[in-house]
Specification:
Largest sheet: 6 strands, antiparallel
Strand order of the largest sheet: 4-3-6-1-2-5
Helix content: 25-40%
Distance between the termini: 58 Å
Shape: elongated
Number of domains: 4
Radius of gyration: 28 Å
Number of helices: 16
Length: about 550
C-alpha cells in the first residue's frame, strides 16, 4: 500500500502522519486562541467584529477536532516501512529507538488532551473552580505537542539533521510563536481586558430607597401600570438597563415580604419609570398593590436588578417571545430600541389567551409604524367570540418558522408563565436554536421572583476575603461583581453551569437549578446567577 502511494503520489505513511500532525497543531492554536477569548469574557457582538460568533461552540468543536487529529497522527507509523515503529510504540513510545523522548512528548500531549476533552464534556459534574484547574492541563497539551513537532525529525531517523527551515517546521514554529504570544498576552494585557469586559457586563449598581407613586394607569381590567418618580423630585435616583426589574418591600400588618416587577418604560425616560402589575388572586404582591396603593403613596424598593437585558450591543438581531404579562420587560427593550433607532431586525411574538387580553396593543402598533425594523405577531390561543382574522392557537414551530427567518441564528428572549416558556424552549430546540442563544425570565403570579424568604444579607467570599451587603433579591453573582470578586459566568440564565459556587454557611434559594447535578446539590453547590440569600449571613467558598 505504501509503495503505491509513493509511486503514484510521492507520499509515504510518514508524510501522511506529518501532515495530520501539522493540522493538529493548527487546530490546537485556534482552540487556544478562542479559549483565551472566552477566558477574558470577550464579546464579538459588543466589540469587533460586531457579529454573533459562537466562540463557545468553536472552542468545543476545535477541541474535539484537535483530539481526533492527535489520535490519528501516530496510527500510520506502524504501517510505514522506514519508521521502525511498532504498534506498542504508538501507545508507549519510550520503547522505540527512534527519538523516544520527543515521540513520548507527542503521546503525553494526546493522553492529556483526552483528559482535557473528557473533563470538559463532563464539566457540569465538577465544582467549577476545580474543573477550571483541571482545564489548565490544556497548556501541557499545546506545549508538549509543539515541542514534539518542532524538534522531532520528520523521517524518524536516528541522528538525522533537522531542517528548521522546512515548510512544515516553519508552520509548527509559527504556531509555537503564536501560542507563546497568546499566553503572554493573556497573562499581561488579558487580565486588564477581562476586568474591563466583566465590568461592561455588570448590571448597574443597585439603589435602595423610596419612590413615590405619581400615577396609576388602568391598562386592562386586571392590569395596572404604576408610574414611579423620585421621592425628592427631579430625575430618578438610578439608571437601569432595558429588561431589568425593581424589588419592592411590601408590608401587610407586621409581615414584610418582597416582590419584584419588571420596569416596562425605556431607560431614556429619566424622570419616571413604570411597572405593570397583573392582579392575580394567588399573587400576594399584586393584590396588595392593586388594593392598597394609591397615587401619592411611597414604596420602598431596591434596584435595578436582573440580567434579562438587551441594550443593543449584545447581538445584531433580536427575537422576543412574550406570554401575557411577560410582555413587560420586552416593552422596555422595545421602547429603548425604537427610541435609539437600533438598525437591526427585531421580532416580537406576543402570545395571549384571547384577543381581549392583549396588553399595550395600541403602543406596539404605534411603535411598529414609527420603527420599521420591528415585525410583530400577536397570537391568541382562543378566538371564539372575537372577530379575529390572524393566526391563533398555542405557539407552534410553524408559527416561529413562518414569522422569523433563520431563527437558529438569532438571539431569542422568552418571558412568560412557566408552562408557556417550557413549551417554547422545547420548540426552539427542535428548530436548532442553541441554548446560548436563548435568554429567559420566568414570571409566576405576575412576579419575577416569588419567594417570601428572601432577605437582606451579608455575603462573604471566603477565599477572596471580601464581603458585601446584598439586598433581598440580589443574586450571588451580582453580589460578587458588586464587591469585585471574579466569578466565571456565561449565560446568566441558569443553563450553562459556568457560575457554580459552593455555599459553606447560610441558606440560599434558587429560581432555577437546571445545570446542577444531584451530586452538586448534596455538596451545596449553587448557581451564583440564580442563588439569592435566604438567611442574613451567607458565606461562599469562592
Amino acid at each position: 500500500m505504501e509503495e503505491l502511494l509513493i509511486r503514484h503520489f510521492d507520499i509515504s505513511f510518514i508524510d501522511i502522519s506529518a501532515y495530520i500532525g501539522l493540522a493538529a497543531a493548527g487546530v490546537m492554536t485556534v482552540n487556544l486562541f478562542v479559549g483565551l477569548l472566552l477566558s477574558i469574557q470577550y464579546s464579538p457582538a459588543a466589540n469587533w467584529p460586531h457579529r454573533r460568533i459562537p466562540l463557545f461552540d468553536i472552542h468545543k468543536w476545535s477541541g474535539y477536532g484537535a483530539l481526533f487529529l492527535a489520535l490519528l497522527h501516530p496510527v500510520w507509523l506502524p504501517l510505514a516501512k522506514g519508521a521502525n515503529f511498532t504498534l506498542l510504540a504508538v501507545f508507549y513510545p519510550l520503547i522505540t529507538t527512534e527519538q523516544p523522548i520527543l515521540t513520548s512528548l507527542g503521546a503525553l500531549s494526546a493522553y492529556t488532551l483526552i483528559f482535557v476533552v473528557l473533563t470538559a464534556y463532563f464539566r457540569q459534574r465538577f465544582v467549577y473552580a476545580f474543573w477550571k484547574k483541571l482545564h489548565y492541563a490544556s497548556y501541557v497539551v499545546i506545549g508538549s505537542f509543539l515541542v514534539h513537532g518542532v524538534f522531532t525529525e520528520p523521517s524518524l531517523k536516528h541522528g538525522a539533521t533537522i531542517n528548521f527551515f522546512d515548510g512544515g517546521k516553519l508552520f509548527i514554529e509559527a504556531c509555537a510563536v503564536i501560542c507563546i504570544g497568546l499566553i503572554a498576552w493573556r497573562i499581561t494585557v488579558g487580565r486588564k481586558l477581562r476586568r474591563e469586559n466583566a465590568s461592561q457586563a455588570v448590571p448597574l449598581p443597585t439603589w435602595h430607597g423610596q419612590l413615590t407613586v405619581a400615577k396609576i394607569i388602568d391598562v386592562a381590567a386586571d392590569v395596572k401600570v404604576f408610574r414611579l418618580v423620585s421621592a425628592t423630585g427631579g430625575r430618578l435616583p438610578f439608571s437601569f438597563l432595558p429588561g431589568q426589574y425593581l424589588s419592592f418591600r411590601l408590608a401587610e400588618g407586621e409581615r414584610v415580604f418582597t416582590r419584584s416587577y419588571s420596569i416596562c418604560s425605556a431607560p431614556e425616560q429619566l424622570n419616571y419609570c413604570d411597572i405593570a402589575v397583573k392582579r392575580m388572586e394567588d399573587g400576594r404582591g399584586s393584590l396588595y398593590l392593586h388594593q392598597h396603593i394609591a397615587p401619592g403613596q411611597s414604596l420602598t424598593c431596591v434596584g435595578p436588578m436582573g440580567s434579562f437585558t438587551f441594550a443593543g450591543t449584545e447581538a445584531d438581531s433580536l427575537v422576543m417571545i412574550a406570554g401575557g404579562i411577560g410582555i413587560t420587560p420586552m416593552l422596555s427593550v422595545l421602547r429603548h430600541l425604537a427610541q435609539t433607532s437600533w438598525p437591526h431586525e427585531v421580532y416580537l411574538l406576543f402570545a395571549v389567551s384571547t384577543p381581549g387580553d392583549i396588553l399595550f396593543e395600541q403602543e406596539i402598533r404605534a411603535i411598529s409604524q414609527q420603527y420599521p425594523r420591528l415585525q410583530y405577531l400577536i397570537l391568541p390561543s382562543k378566538v371564539s367570540g372575537f372577530s379575529w382574522e390572524g393566526p391563533n392557537g398555542r405557539i407552534q414551530a410553524e408559527h416561529l418558522v413562518n414569522f422569523v427567518p433563520y431563527i437558529d441564528r438569532r438571539r431569542v428572549h422568552v418571558c412568560g408563565p412557566e408552562p408557556m416558556m417550557a413549551a417554547t424552549i422545547a420548540i426552539l430546540h427542535e428548530l436548532n436554536v442553541a441554548d446560548s442563544h436563548i435568554h429567559t425570565e420566568s414570571f409566576g403570579s405576575g412576579d419575577v421572583i416569588v419567594d417570601d424568604n428572601l432577605v437582606d444579607a451579608m455575603v462573604t467570599f471566603v477565599k477572596s476575603e471580601k464581603a458585601c451587603f446584598a439586598p433581598a433579591g440580589m443574586t450571588l453573582l451580582d453580589a460578587a461583581e458588586e464587591c469585585g470578586v471574579s466569578v466565571e459566568s456565561l449565560c446568566r440564565t441558569g443553563t450553562c453551569g459556568t457560575c457554580k459556587v459552593k455555599v459553606v454557611a447560610g441558606e440560599v434559594n434558587m429560581h432555577r437549578d437546571d445545570a446542577l447535578t444531584a451530586r452538586d446539590i448534596r455538596h451545596r453547590i449553587v448557581l451564583a446567577c440564580q442563588a439569592r440569600a435566604a438567611t442574613a449571613d451567607v458565606r461562599i467558598e469562592h
